[in-house]
Design a protein that fits this description.
This protein is of the alpha/beta class. Helices cover 35% and strands 23% of the residues. Strand 7, helix 5 (213-222) and strand 8 (226-228) form a beta-alpha-beta unit. Helix 2 crosses helix 3 (108-120), helix 3 (108-120) packs across helix 6 (232-240) and helix 4 crosses helix 7 (265-288). The structure holds hypoxanthine (HPA). The site of hypoxanthine has 14 residues, from strand 5, strand 8 and strand 9.
Length: 290
């Protein structure tokens, strides 16, 4: 009986949430636009241990997720959970310091809600960053990988369910999930600044376990160059809304036969910290060229 009541409550919550999605997007974007001064056209989602890009943002106005209506609250260690409005390299941006991970228990609508809000605020470019485990045997720890494509290995699709034509098409095209133009610009910037970058396919999976050796092998066989627990849902929704996307991943460990060692969240953050100034440099010059 208790189980039945719980199941009904859960189903009702989901239906209620979906019904209110448009209203919530509007409410949240209006709330932010009334309080935040920036005229940003670019949003940046900062991954685990990559919040340091924030130190380069000037004219900062911060707003904690807890105080934003309808925003989920980030809980994972290393994520302080705030939206930062300001200028990066002199360009208006809004940055998410801390994202919502599926493994934390959020549903896909919650994970991707900020992207919907950004679009409603008039933002049309999304930059994403994350830490991931390299499965490409040519990669080294600390490499910066430009994400050229992704594989959605999450058990749930963020666009499953009723489609709102106001937000995007029922069957979105995904032939260029990461903008070729932005990839080319980022490579140019990296070359000019003598920053080593690699390119590859990012596979997003639910976590929270890191991969077993057999799973790393499987993901490599499937075509992944790196594996992580984020990014793919947000990028799918950004594509759904018609945004252009650019993504970078810091290879914090290797899931390559013979090189697999124990991975910890702390280690991932440490390597991420070391590599992030280079990523910041590329992101900064990129926003100046969009
Ligand atoms: N898998 C493996 N290694 C990682 C990950 C992951 O999801 N994230 C950061 N390093």
């Amino acid at each position: 009986m208790v189980f039945l009541i719980k199941s009904c409550t859960f189903a009702f919550t989901i239906i209620f949430y979906r019904k209110n999605m448009l209203k919530e997007i509007q409410e949240t974007s209006e709330f932010l636009m009334h309080r935040m001064p920036a005229d940003a056209k670019i949003a940046i989602i900062l991954g685990t241990g990559l919040g340091d890009l924030v130190t380069q943002i000037t004219d900062i106005k911060e707003i904690s997720y807890q105080t934003i209506p309808n925003f989920p609250v980030s809980t994972v260690e290393g994520h302080s959970g705030k939206l930062i409005f300001g200028k990066l390299g002199g360009v208006d941006i809004v940055a998410m310091q801390g994202r919502f991970h599926y493994y934390e228990g959020y549903n896909m609508q919650e994970v991707t809600f900020p992207v919907r809000v950004f679009k409603a605020m008039g933002i049309n470019t999304l930059l994403v960053s994350n830490a991931s485990g390299g499965t490409n045997p040519d990669f080294e720890i600390g490499d910066l990988m430009i994400i050229t494509d992704h594989i959605n290995f999450f058990p749930e699709h963020p666009l499953r369910g009723r489609n709102y034509n106001e937000l995007g098409p029922r069957f979105p095209d995904m032939s260029q999930p990461y903008s070729h133009k932005l990839i080319a610009k980022a490579k140019e910037i990296a070359a000019k600044n003598a920053i080593k970058v690699v390119e590859g396919v990012y596979l997003g999976t639910s976590g929270p376990t890191f991969e077993t050796p057999a799973e790393y092998r499987m993901f490599r066989t499937l075509g992944a160059d790196s594996v992580g627990m984020s990014t793919v849902p947000e990028v799918i929704v950004a594509n759904h809304t018609g945004m252009q996307v650019f993504g970078m991943s810091i290879i914090t460990d290797l899931g390559v036969e013979g090189k697999i060692v124990e991975v910890s969240h702390e280690e991932v953050q440490k390597i991420g910290n070391a590599a992030q100034p280079l990523m910041t440099k590329i992101m900064t010059e990129l926003v100046q060229n969009i």
